[in-house]
């Protein structure tokens, strides 16, 4: 499996407003709001790279890796015992 780079990270935050201020004022990220309660932050051509999830705890929630190809992703997931399954485009859209 050829991991190209970290694609995105989701973080749980007890203080999403404080993170929003830090991300935009200090790091210079662009805020991407959604109607799901999450707040995303953009730093390049991707829709969002950091997603903040309001939570009762702070810490990492999920991570997305970019692989060399879709075939590599399918092979890695299958070998880990979690073969990919088809999903709707609206559900997949909540992950970007």
TrEMBL record:
Region span, Disordered: 74-96
- Biased composition (Low complexity) is annotated at 75-96
Superkingdom field: Bacteria
State the protein's name. Answer: Uncharacterized protein
State the organism's lineage.
Answer: Bacteria, Bacillati, Actinomycetota, Actinomycetes, Streptosporangiales
């Amino acid at each position: 499996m050829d991991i190209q780079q970290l694609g995105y990270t989701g973080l749980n935050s007890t203080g999403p407003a404080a993170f929003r201020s830090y991300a935009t004022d200090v790091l210079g990220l662009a805020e991407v709001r959604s109607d799901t309660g999450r707040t995303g932050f953009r730093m390049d051509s991707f829709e969002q790279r950091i997603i903040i999830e309001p939570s009762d705890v702070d810490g990492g929630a999920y991570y997305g890796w970019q692989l060399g190809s879709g075939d590599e992703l399918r092979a890695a997931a299958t070998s880990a015992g979690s073969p990919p399954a088809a999903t709707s485009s609206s559900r997949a859209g909540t992950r970007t």
